[in-house]
# Entry
Amino acid sequence: MTDAAPRPTLEAVAARAGVSRATVSRVVNGGDGVRAPLVERVQRAVDELGYVPNRAARSLVTRRHDAVAVVIAEPETRVFADPFFALQLRGISKELTAHDNQLVLLLTEGRDDHTRVGRYLAGGHVDGALVFSLHLDDPLPGLIRRAGVPTVFGGRPGWRDDDERAAVYVDSDNRGGARDAVRHLAGLGRTRIAHITGPLDQTSAADRLAGYRDVMADGDPALVAEGDFTPAGGERAMRDLLDRCPDVDAVFAANDLTASGALRVLRERGRRVPDDVAVIGFDDMLPLAEQTEPPLTTVRQPIEEMGRLMARLLLGSLRHGDARPGGGEGTEPPTGVVLPTTLIRRDSA
# Structure
């Protein structure tokens, strides 16, 4: 084992650049008021010496950690099995990386985890939080408000108080996308159109059910079966639908994973898709939607872009010192950004 070489210091950089230590500190910490020629000299000295700023010392000066918590209100078994989360995390990671910020992933398995996450956020370890997949009874929003951490939510908040109107969030047009899907099925001449929902304690699932009902206002209540955004949930719901409504001729599934489960059951029961039963999903998660049998007609939501936009809004609020939910005064970002959806036609409907 050899001794590690000593790390270059601010003083060494200052000596190499021929400037004061204070000037070097301002340059490496992103401060203003240093003339361009001096900035160039300092940066050249930093590169030549291989100087790496001490993040802990820097955070004492800037009061920034260059770290963002990504909180997913789901157990790890769900997060790592659902490609939706991978796509959203990829978008978040790209945006944070582009701005030299670290991603800290926090998952919640149960109530003890909620307390742990709230304690971590209140401990000043990160500059802000991105939170998604909330359920209506989730204590996380209250814990985050008490922690005073600037936050952007993925999905329309569902808690019923004044704080919902002040929350910053990014969502897709779940209700409008659902309407487009069901109208497409009706336009194909289908009259017994069923809906397999997601977990109805999440606003995305509730909004997609509302979109279905906008078109099927006089529909048979027996044509609605509750799922849970998983293939197994889609299988269970599809079996229930076929048992009680054997004349079903179309299914709008709340997401692509649910649709994949429904397709398996239809194949087992000898129902041809789309001849006997047309099927539409929601998300357009590739390659899943292209590899189902038959390839899935679905509603595309820009999952990765939603992640990037969440991170962009949070980083913008940190730069401008926005007060929601825990910063200083500044330019307020929009409280809610809703991105459009698009119906993608393939062979299943």
About this structure: The first helix runs from residue 10 to 17. Residues 323-331 have pLDDT under 50 and may be disordered.
